């Protein structure tokens, strides 16, 4: 019932400065801009850079992953290696590189088969949330519609998926490249029937609010996940 990621919001003290960073190093185009928020486009995903203010706020020290085509991965690595101390890991046959933006977010670029598209940095495919109680958070997101695909609770992490978008839930810890899970993260996910999905978790959510394009849920750890119809 859940599908693709619609947006991820990052908190930025000065959104214009972070916009300049993502333009310079990831070549993300700006599609909307105001004093409080700038929206960048990464494939089909919006990356929202939001100044501190009313909730939902953007995430802090968030670890997230965007795609790059296999044919471009080495070029992206060489380009970014000139400016950052990159960390690289391989998952099966796919490589990922990691670096940090000026707000302390751990940005991952993962190579993916994307033949036939125009290239460049693309969709969000992974997001990491910090949670207080791992078992309870996993149960919550399973009822929301995510499926567990890698359960390593002894190490403090569980990976879930919609099939098109992966979510990692971490207890407070340091991961690859000393990344941390994001706190008070705001993100959107496509859903066939947002209202029906929201009812599955309504009793345990901190808040459930109908909005113009779906239903916004505040999970027990304070993260905002919006189901977009």
Helix content: 10-25%
Proportion of beta-strand residues: 35-45%
Order of helices and strands: EHEEEEHEEEEHEEEEHEEE
Helical segment count? 4
Structural class, from secondary structure content?
alpha+beta
Summarize the structure.
The chain is of the alpha+beta class. Helices cover about 15% and strands about 40% of the residues. The N and C termini lie close together (about 10 Å).
List keywords for this structure.
globular, single chain, 8-stranded mixed sheet, 4 helices, alpha+beta, 229 residues
Report what the structure shows.
This protein has 229 residues and is an alpha+beta fold. It has helices at residues 15-26, 73-81, 134-144, 194-201; strands spanning 2-11, 29-33, 37-42, 45-50, 63-69, 87-91, 94-100, 106-112, 124-130, 147-152, 157-161, 166-170, 186-191, 207-211, 214-218, 224-228. The strands form two sheets. It has an eight-stranded mixed β-sheet. 38% of the residues are buried.
Ordered list of secondary-structure elements with their pairings:
Layout: E1 2-11, H1 15-26, E2 29-33, E3 37-42, E4 45-50, E5 63-69, H2 73-81, E6 87-91, E7 94-100, E8 106-112, E9 124-130, H3 134-144, E10 147-152, E11 157-161, E12 166-170, E13 186-191, H4 194-201, E14 207-211, E15 214-218, E16 224-228
Parallel strand pairs: 1-4, 5-8, 9-12, 13-16
Antiparallel strand pairs: 1-13, 2-3, 3-4, 5-9, 6-7, 7-8, 10-11, 11-12, 14-15, 15-16
């Amino acid at each position: 019932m859940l599908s693709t990621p619609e947006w991820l919001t990052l908190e930025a003290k000065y959104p214009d400065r972070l916009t300049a960073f993502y333009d310079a190093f990831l070549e993300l185009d700006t599609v909307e801009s105001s004093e409080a928020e700038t929206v960048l486009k990464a494939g089909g995903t919006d990356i929202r850079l939001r100044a501190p203010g009313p909730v939902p706020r953007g995430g802090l020290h968030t670890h997230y992953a965007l795609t790059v085509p296999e044919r471009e991965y080495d070029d992206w690595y060489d380009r970014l290696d000139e400016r950052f101390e990159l960390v690289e890991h391989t998952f099966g046959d796919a490589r990922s590189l990691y670096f940090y933006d000026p707000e302390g977010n751990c940005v991952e670029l993962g190579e993916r088969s994307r033949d036939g598209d125009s290239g460049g940095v693309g969709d969000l495919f992974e997001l990491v949330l910090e949670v207080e109680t791992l078992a309870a958070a996993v149960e919550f997101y399973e009822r929301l519609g995510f499926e567990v695909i890698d359960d390593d609770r002894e190490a403090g992490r569980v990976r879930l998926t919609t099939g098109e978008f992966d979510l990692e839930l971490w207890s407070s810890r340091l991961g690859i490249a000393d990344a941390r899970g994001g706190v008070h993260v705001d993100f959107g996910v496509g859903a066939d029937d947002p209202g029906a999905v929201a009812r599955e978790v309504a009793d345990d959510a901190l808040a459930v609010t109908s909005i113009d394009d779906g239903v916004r849920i505040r999970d027990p750890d304070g993260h905002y996940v919006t189901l977009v119809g």
